[in-house]
Amino acid sequence: MSSTTGHQPTVDDATAWWSTSVTRIAPGEIELRGYPIEEVIGNVGFVSTIWLLTTGALPTRAVSELLEATLVASVDHGPQAPSIASARMAATCGVGLNSAVANGVNVLGDTHGGAGQQCVQLLNDLVERHESEGIALEQLAREAIADHKGRGAFVPGFGHRFHPRDPRRDPLLRLVEEAVARGDISGRYLAAGLALERALERGERRIPMNIDGISAIVYAELGVQPELARGLFVLSRSVGILAHAWEEKQAGQRIKGPLPPPLLADYTGEATRAVPRAHRPATP
């Protein structure tokens, strides 16, 4: 059989079709980025293995510790989070645990779950302009905030609809500052994030960074690309999604909707009315 180009596919064509630099397998052999699995097991932690697979290199201890703290901070935010609620609801509908988890993960989009990616991109932009154009971070931060407000958009990574001050901010920020002081990371993106936070202050009103903002600082400092940063958040939140879906399945209740019975969602449509005669079938 020939392709539409007339080229006869070869064995090399077939093996190159899904070529990968991530994993090599052969009968009795598995290697992750070149490291035999039997050497990885027991020697490389799960978080370090995540870094190895996604970036191609084993992390330093400092990178591993920052990454682990950030992943732990993002694991869960309770059943009011749409991703968690969606997974719990799905778990009561007779689907498998994997389907319930997938249901929750699939809710993580630009609005719920995407702010970290957007904040990494914002930090990258600020640092790039600061270093290439010599513009002060404070001015760039004010311009970025004005741009978001002009578009009616939230500044990603700052403020929280539930927490006046996100309890995950301070411990992660402290770890980042300690890493900067040791010379483990540059501190360039930390400076940009703090400049944004200061620019958002209005008198007594403060809009501190949230988990997405402080996580974005970590990921940007570690050189993680914006979209991969979202992937790492999804990986982290999958832990909470799994735990909630499993708990809901263990409860054994069937078909739980968004409201407990007998509560019903408010109806805001037309009042009860009859179908007009013109739309009724003719009487034989």
Automatic annotation (TrEMBL):
Keyword Transferase listed: yes
Keyword Coiled coil: no
Biological process according to GO: carbohydrate metabolic process; tricarboxylic acid cycle
E.C. numbers: 2.3.3.16
InterPro entries: Citrate_synth-like_lrg_a-sub (IPR016142), Citrate_synth-like_sm_a-sub (IPR016143), Citrate_synthase (IPR002020), Citrate_synthase_sf (IPR036969)
A GO-annotated cellular component: cytosol
Domain of life: Bacteria
Gene Ontology terms for molecular function: citrate synthase activity; lyase activity
Pfam families with a match to the protein in the record: Citrate_synt
Annotated signal sequence range: none
Keywords on record: Lyase, Transferase
Pathway: Carbohydrate metabolism; tricarboxylic acid cycle
The family this protein is said to belong to: Belongs to the citrate synthase family.
UniProt protein name: citrate synthase (unknown stereospecificity)
